[in-house]
Specification:
The complex is a heterodimer. By secondary structure, chain A is mostly helical. Chain A is built from 9 helices and no strands. Chain A has a domain of about 55 residues. The longest helix of chain A has about 45 residues. Chain A is extended, with a radius of gyration of 30 Å. Chain A starts with a helix and ends with a helix. Chain B is an alpha/beta fold. Chain B has 2 domains: about 70 residues; about 210 residues, TPP-binding domain (Rossmann fold). Chain B has a 6-stranded parallel sheet, sandwiched between helices. In chain B, helix 5 links the parallel strand 2 and strand 3. Classes of the chains: A mainly alpha, B alpha/beta.
Chain lengths: ~280, ~300
């Protein structure tokens, strides 16, 4: 195992213990690990999204690879001049290596897809949020995303979650007694649960009684969800303990033991120094 | 009796950090002394269904495995991924991996590196890793119409048309099965809504425990063919795969989920006891509060 691997193990143990230290109370270790986690996650997602989607699927469609010997015409030449300008900007005037905009276009597609100019412009609008005077243009991009997502999801939810689930809630009286009994419970649970969320009528009388039955069904659902949530969190705890145990091996120079000891001592000192002074308490 | 009441009330006002310590120990001890905490694992009907569906696939069938989880949920789902790849490769089924989560790239790469060599599987011939695309349901819709609109290259940067096993695959209709390894959005739900229900492609899932109550209606309605529920589901599936591979003469060591189930069960016992204790204390304090305090 080389030193970089060992450093990685020590770092992962340190960050794990830093997060766990929150169980004692909020402290600088936890804060540092939390900030690092959020920053790295955001950076990682941004880089991956750029190289896996924006560069090959957007820029690749707008500026596909071209035959340099072929006659392109004035319009296409101008379009690829824009490409060269973008390359000049992305390489800081040629100072950096050419990577985002390789020479003669991006490999993957044969023809320019002009329709992709629209998402390209909307993407630029989104970035204009950083300029207060032009920030309003970002609303156009957001409007497109919201509208597209709503339309796209509408069909999926209507088909899979409404129509197919309504069909599943019907009682099949041709089945055996047990399946009919199960079907009836499902039907009563579904209807009473829906009545509980029906706010157009005061929940008194028969409506109130049915909605009360609905509450019991909802409680069972929440109980099951809570149970599964606990199960999931314990699984994650086991995963971290697994790593901490492996990291405590002689090959890793007992990373867990050393870092845990150091952290307990430092947290002890920090807690001692961080004690509120009597005059603070008085004020 | 009053003494007992006082003990329960004192336990109820115990510092929360003792509870954390207790839960931590309930996980740690079975990990450090596994021989003292061995528990049997019995497959549930849902895990058995997943196994039966995968086992029914013929040699050279094509399955899309979607990696929608990351390091934060790895302990719950990764064992399912390993057991699944063991099962698929032992049956010579071709695996097409995609990721709807950016971290899915790492998870898929790690899973393939753990299993593929053991079965002598070759990249591009027996399995391919297409990698992550952002967009959630939009990516699923893209794969439904034409895989090449979403993927021009695989995760390693190879031209998709130069990959042998991609030659006769245009869209999801060319595949026989979908398996979603899901930790949230986008995940199993999106595969059901935008691929499996509209196209009628069979699908199974291995998901985090917290998702189970959201996914189970699809399973009960046969929109999803079985579910591996978190770590327990993974352990059950591992046992089923291990049994099947042993019958075929393939040696497979016990999976991580099976090893960790004792710790999981012990922690559950401790939590259930704490919930009961908490309820007793609450009942006593409420009652004594009404009577004007503990006498």
């Amino acid at each position: 195992m080389d030193y970089m691997d060992i450093f990685g193990v020590w770092l992962s143990v340190f960050l794990t213990l830093s997060i766990f230290s929150y169980l004692y109370k909020d402290n600088p270790f936890y804060k540092a690990a939390e900030h690092l986690y959020i920053g790295i996650s955001a950076g990682y997602v941004a880089v991956i999204s750029f190289w896996q989607q924006i560069q090959p699927n957007l820029f690749g469609r707008l500026w596909p690879r071209i035959d340099v010997n072929a006659d392109m015409g004035i319009f296409k030449s101008a379009w690829y001049f824009v490409y060269d300008v973008l390359n000049w900007v992305s390489t800081l005037g040629g100072w950096l290596d050419r990577s985002i905009f390789p020479a003669n276009g991006i490999k993957g597609f044969d023809e320019i897809s002009w329709i992709y100019v629209i998402p390209f412009i909307l993407g630029i609008f989104m970035l204009l949020r950083l300029i207060p005077t032009l920030g309003w243009l970002a609303r156009w991009a957001i409007a497109y995303i919201v509208g597209m997502a709503a339309g796209l999801r509408f069909y999926g939810f209507l088909n899979s979650d409404v129509l197919m689930q309504v069909k599943a809630a019907t009682v099949d009286f041709s089945g055996d007694w047990w399946s009919i009994f199960n079907g009836l419970i499902l039907l009563v649970g579904t209807l009473s649960g829906l009545v509980y969320f029906f706010f157009s009528k005061e929940q008194t009388g028969i409506v109130g009684k049915v909605s009360k039955v609905g509450i019991y069904f909802l409680m069972i659902k929440f109980g099951a969800s809570f149970g599964f949530a606990v199960m999931g969190r314990i699984s994650l705890l086991i995963g971290r303990f697994d790593d901490l145990i492996v990291s405590n091996s002689p090959e890793n120079y007992y990373a867990t033991m050393w870092l845990l000891s150091a952290m307990i001592i430092l947290l002890g000192i920090w807690a001692f120094l961080d004690k509120p002074k009597p005059e603070d308490l008085a004020s | 009796m009053d003494l007992l009441k006082k003990i329960f009330i004192a336990l109820g006002s115990m510092d929360r950090r003792f509870i954390f310590l207790l839960v931590g120990l309930s996980v740690l001890l079975p990990k450090l002394y596994p021989d003292f905490f061995t528990l049997p694992i019995k497959a549930s009907s849902h895990s058995q269904r997943v196994f039966d569906e995968i086992d029914a696939l013929k040699e050279d069938s094509k399955i899309l495995v979607s990696f929608e989880y990351g390091p934060s949920t790895k302990p719950e789902i990764h064992p399912s991924a390993i057991a699944l790849l063991n099962h698929l490769f032992s049956k010579d089924i071709k695996v097409y991996a995609v990721a709807l989560w950016p971290d899915g790239n790492f998870m898929a790469t790690e899973a393939f590196s753990q299993v593929a060599d053991k079965f002598g599987k070759i990249y591009g011939v027996d399995y391919v890793n297409l990698g992550y695309k952002p967009g959630g349901e939009a990516v699923v819709k893209g794969l439904v119409s034409d895989i090449r609109t979403m993927y021009t290259v695989d995760l390693l940067g190879n031209d998709i048309d130069s990959i042998e096993m991609m030659k006769d695959v245009t869209n999801l209709l060319d595949l026989d099965f979908i398996f979603s390894l899901s930790a949230g959005y986008p995940g199993s739900k999106e595969w059901v809504q935008f691929a499996c229900d509209p196209l009628g492609i069979p699908m199974s899932t291995g998901c985090t425990s917290i998702q189970v109550t959201d996914i189970i209606p699809y399973v009960e309605n046969d929109q999803i063919k079985g579910i591996l529920s978190g770590m327990p589901g993974a352990a059950e599936y591992e046992q089923l795969v291990q049994g099947a591979l042993s019958e075929r003469g393939v040696a497979v060591s016990p999976g991580k989920a099976s090893i960790n189930m004792a710790a999981q069960s012990m922690a559950h016992v401790v939590i259930v006891l704490l919930i009961i204790l908490g309820n007793i204390t609450y009942y006593l304090t409420r009652k004594s509060g009404k009577n004007g305090g503990v006498s």
